[in-house]
């Protein structure tokens, strides 16, 4: 009987240890650090395993305590080990921790230490020590300061980027949203919020946020607490073992404001479960600015468009589900008409059959007009593979970007009734091949509309906006186009309805969507980073001053008439290697600093009497500061 009682107590000890370890809110940890999730999950599981081993082994090495104190000591050791191992491992992995993560670790550590110390010192019954520890833990959690916005290891950085004729400030705001659940879905969109100074963001699985910036450039994120009616969970449950599911997503968002009402339009996939097929829907909901969330009377989403026919998941050439070729971009043509692009979803007669692109009734491979008042639908253009972006320029022209096969991304000028040739015409080829099989032997239809510009190889073209902003000056009339593979924004110069050149501006992220705001362009990337791109007026003025006063003699990176200016600050005066300075400047001692450079630019002859510097000096203090800031770029 005693042996059975001892066995029961030992079993209870182990169960208590396991229970105490599992009380660690793993969900807080997983929502406090960003991807890769697999790495973090491994760290968490390792921490739990190490904690369990320590909890059941350390008490046996300590002196016996009265009663069944070892069980309580096991719990204390487990709590302490969970905190130390978990926090230490995550810090070693260089993952950012949120306030919730740090608070959780500190609370568990404090609870474990207090419980063990109190019990060991007083010999009181475990229930009292456990109660004290529990009160301490609850008090720490309750009294902890609450952040006004979610913090998920948010990171902000700003870079200065040089375009061909403009200096840009590119600010990156990463990890401001909760980590996406596995498996990751790529997509989502961003649009200007007409009700305020910020933007509306819809993530790939339908969560809706509002973002804006305060006066000093800090980004604020507001969760609007509602979702797009995309039934991803049902789709995942039904097809996960038959096809990749990452392409089932929100494709785009458009926003229109009338009177005091903001209406959201969202394009997204939808799974028809009873028929085991999928469609593309456009859903809409009213968002009142005073409520900050959909008003109770308007909370329900309405479907104003559903593509036809419903597409099955079935084997074919390539993946069984071609949702990455959804298209789905939205653009208002006027007060009543909304234009939607629809990709072929791989039903082009080659990857999947039938060929719905060539079918005059099917919606796929087309652009569609939707009457927002009556719901009437009409085909606007046809012959598309995967049209990604739409932009209505100030001159009334409608531009579209389109994914080709391997190579052959396109910029198209849309004309109502036009046929853009796919699948029988493309500048791309089959992946891994050198030909495009549907085009071999196909008739050359002279009536097909050819692209205004093409990219070979492909850049993974995405959304576009037409530039019409005085802050961007010489770019007005150009198009800014995002790219996934190229991880850049391309500025396309248009002349006579054609693209004459395309300049890549490197972003370093897969650019999924672009929104235009006053004096800025805001990008949404596949890492759910928001990128804010603004012109640097001061540096652009500094570049102009450099051209006017310095460019004739100096080059930033090589010697010409004057010495090169790269890494000027901190260099000894008259210290550039390989250049013959005037004796006047050689006599000046010390290093170039911003103050000494300012003194020199104000009056070179006074700074170094007898210098061969040609300019008389720049009297304007602001102009000198702008010029110095420009020179500092080459540090």
What would you say this structure looks like, in words?
By secondary structure, the protein is α+β, with helices and mostly antiparallel strands. The protein folds into three domains: 2-143, no CATH class; 155-535, Neuraminidase (6 Propeller); 539-632, Orthogonal Bundle (Cytochrome Bc1 Complex, Chain D, domain 2), CATH 1.10.760.10. Helices cover 26% and strands 27% of the residues. It is built from twelve helices and 26 strands. The chain has helices at 2-22, 26-30, 37-61, 69-92, 99-122, 126-143, 232-239, 537-549, 583-586, 594-602, 604-607, 621-632; strands at 155-162, 167-174, 189-192, 199-202, 207-213, 219-227, 250-258, 261-272, 277-288, 302-306, 311-312, 327-332, 337-342, 366-371, 377-382, 386-392, 398-403, 409-413, 453-455, 461-466, 479-483, 488-495, 498-506, 511-517, 520-525, 530-535. Strands 1-2-26-25-24 form a five-stranded antiparallel β-sheet. Strands 7, 8, 9, 10 and 11 form a five-stranded antiparallel β-sheet that branches. A hairpin with a 4-residue loop joins strand 21 and strand 22. Helix 5 (99-122) packs antiparallel against helix 6 and helix 10 crosses helix 12 (621-632). It starts with a helix and ends with a helix.
